[in-house]
């Protein structure tokens, strides 16, 4: 079974700066990490490879420094990494991102199964996996909590669908988005780090893809336009209200009215 895993490098801290003019995240060159949910997809792929044989390739879209995320995946057991990097890809929304990834996947040779994390910790949209599958024209399922069985024709999985857990048999090729409870990811191997060379990772730009129309990628290919994005204000200020129970209640009501959360005097009725 030949498996592709889609991963993303995300900021390593919640304290992320936003460019207020462009509305884009200011991604530091250091302090990044592999998206946590992608680790569960990666572990699932490696476990399936151990059971059924085949290969595991990993693909990501990002700036050149995203190569380090692919290196970590190689050290964990992946056979090859593909980095989609080009200035034309910058500023993409979920639609342009998923289209770029689908075009990159088309350059990865034969594959049977695509695995993704449920979502990323920087965007939290949980849309890219499903949209990538739609671009590729293959079936997909989200919130997968376990892979029960697999063969040359399909996979049987359990997925958390809001109030119920369903068991589904999905025909290959397909795409699955993995939940966090599916497994415990392994650690990178120091021996693989020393043994694997730089030729395990290749980079693809816009000119390497089948569709080279720049209007389908990055900001140009993104129908979603962010009017304004700004980091939330951080404040350590606080207001204390002291007194008896009645005085506390009155003080809180007056504070809420002063902050325009309720109309002044509305509680008298």
Strands of the biggest beta sheet: in what spatial order? 9-8-7-10-6-1-4-5-11
Describe the global form.
globular
Can you count the beta strands?
11
Label the CATH architecture of the largest domain: 3-Layer(aba) Sandwich
- Based on secondary structure, the structural category is alpha/beta
The CA-CA distance between the termini, in Å, is 70 Å
Series of H and E elements: EEEHEHEHEHEEEEHEH
Helical fraction equals: 25-40%
The name CATH uses for the topology of the largest domain is Rossmann fold
CATH class designation of the largest domain: Alpha Beta
Helical run tally: 6
The CATH superfamily name of the largest domain is HUPs
* Uncertain segments: none
Alpha-carbon Rg, integer: 23 Å
Largest sheet descriptor: 9 strands, mixed
Range of strand content: 15-25%
> In the residues, how many domains can be counted?
2
Give the overall average pLDDT: 88
Explain what this protein looks like in three dimensions:
By secondary structure, the chain is an alpha/beta fold. It folds into two domains: 2-216, HUPs (Rossmann fold), CATH 3.40.50.620; 235-269, no CATH class. Helices cover 25% and strands 24% of the residues. It has six helices and eleven strands. The chain has helices at residues 36-52, 67-76, 94-105, 128-136, 190-195, 245-258, and strands at residues 2-6, 9-11, 32-34, 55-61, 80-84, 113-117, 140-150, 154-161, 164-171, 174-178, 201-204. α3 packs across α4 (128-136). The chain is globular, with a radius of gyration of 23 Å. The N and C termini lie far apart (70 Å). The model has no long low-confidence stretch (mean pLDDT 88).
């Amino acid at each position: 079974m030949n498996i592709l895993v889609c991963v993303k490098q995300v900021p390593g801290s919640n304290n992320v700066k936003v460019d207020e003019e462009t509305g884009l995240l200011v991604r530091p060159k250091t302090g990044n990490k592999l998206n946590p949910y992608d680790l569960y997809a990666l572990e699932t792929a490696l476990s399936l490879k151990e059971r059924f044989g085949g290969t595991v390739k990993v693909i990501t879209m990002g700036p050149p420094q995203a190569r380090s995320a692919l290196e970590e995946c190689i050290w964990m057991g992946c056979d090859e990494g593909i980095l989609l990097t080009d200035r034309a890809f910058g500023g993409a929304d979920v639609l342009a991102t998923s289209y770029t990834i689908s075009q990159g996947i088309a350059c990865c040779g034969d594959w049977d199964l695509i695995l993704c994390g449920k979502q990323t910790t920087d965007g939290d949209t949980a849309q890219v996996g499903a949209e990538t599958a739609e671009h590729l024209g293959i079936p997909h399922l989200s919130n997968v909590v376990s892979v029960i069985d697999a063969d040359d024709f399909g996979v049987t999985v359990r997925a958390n669908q809001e109030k119920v857990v369903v068991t589904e048999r999905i025909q290959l090729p397909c795409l699955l988005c993995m939940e966090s409870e599916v497994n415990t990811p392994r650690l990178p191997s120091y021996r693989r780090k020393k043994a694997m060379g730089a030729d395990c990772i290749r980079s693809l730009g816009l000119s390497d893809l089948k569709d080279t129309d720049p209007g389908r990628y990055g900001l140009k290919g993104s129908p979603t336009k962010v009017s304004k994005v700004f980091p939330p204000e951080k404040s350590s200020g606080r207001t204390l209200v002291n007194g008896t129970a009645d005085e506390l209640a009155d003080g809180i009501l007056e504070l809420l009215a002063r902050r325009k959360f309720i109309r002044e005097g509305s509680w008298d009725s």
